[in-house]
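To close the chapter, one final illustration. This time we ask the reader to focus less on the individual chains and more on the assembly as a whole: which components sit near each other, and how the overall shape emerges from the parts.
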Amino acid sequence: MTVSKTATLDAAKPPRPARKDGADGAGEGGGPLQMGELAELLGYSLKRAQLKVFEDFLRCVAPLQLTPAQFSVLLLLDKNPGRNQTEIANTLGILRPNFVAMLDGLESRDLCARMRSTNDRRSHILVLTDKGRAVLARAKKLVATKHEARLDELLGPANRLALLEMLAKIAREF
Amino acid sequence: MTVSKTATLDAAKPPRPARKDGADGAGEGGGPLQMGELAELLGYSLKRAQLKVFEDFLRCVAPLQLTPAQFSVLLLLDKNPGRNQTEIANTLGILRPNFVAMLDGLESRDLCARMRSTNDRRSHILVLTDKGRAVLARAKKLVATKHEARLDELLGPANRLALLEMLAKIAREF
DNA sequence: GATAATTGTTATCCACTATATCAAATTCCG
DNA sequence: CGGAATTTGATATAGTGGATAACAATTATC
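The assembled structure is written out below.
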């Protein structure tokens, strides 16, 4: 059913440049579409902006192979030593079942470790490894000098701070 | 293996109130965790705020059973009649394959319809049905009077506008 | 008229999210 | 003390969103 008929031939065929129409992204009806009330919908711009920011984060921190979620875990572990999985996961809004695989990934890369607590032998105390601290330090530098710096450049420091505070307020009180 | 042993008994057991410790969400180490640099990470607050806003959107528009994505499609169809699937999907950042099932859902609820174009018999011209227009009108009212109004109340109209413009700028230029 | 591109579609695949359930360990409370 | 309930980490599983490859029908290109 999934017989690759063209796949073996595609490499031998240099595709054509583009289409005749020089205008990009437009159909028969005319130019770009009207966004209408979408432009005033906060949630819409919020979502599009979030995707862009995460995309840039991944680019900037690509040499360390860290996702935003992984970076946030390393940050929390560094600032909150001696906590268990439930506490870290809850703080980040990650469900405990989903946090297991995430920790497996970080632990398999020797960025953090689970240690059985002596007080409560159910829980795992999470700690950063030396490598984890080193990676975190490098990641922080990349984020600050490339990622956040680019946002500063786009918005200006004052606006960036105002934006941050409003977003934090929404996340906290909405 | 997945024999439900406790499920049949759970209903008969009224669970206890809570735990002994009155302080909520804290572990052995102390109170709430330190957020550290996370508080200054724009992407982090952006993501948390986006989740909150979408959550509230779903609540406000729940009687109409519309997701933010579905609402955005209805809005675009209303403002841009005579466009095909590729144009609508591209404008919303939805990949064409994923847009098919989405349209199936809207069409099965008689909110929109696909019409074969006479010019190009490959493409489907998308149109809102009467019911689709009615639902959209009610949705717009709910969004304005409940959802956006609540954001206005939290931030103030001026701040809300400033926030919107910064997010739009990020989505556009970042 | 042959070749390439476009449109809608299907089939997958991956990441993320959500719920139910479990065993081990701990707490609660009579 | 001792049984019932809770907590913790874990597994399985399902749902959703996003992404790529491939395909048939149609249209554009040269």
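The first strand of chain B starts at residue 112 and ends at 116. Chain B is about 55% helix and 5% strand. With these observations in hand, you are ready for the problems at the end of the chapter.
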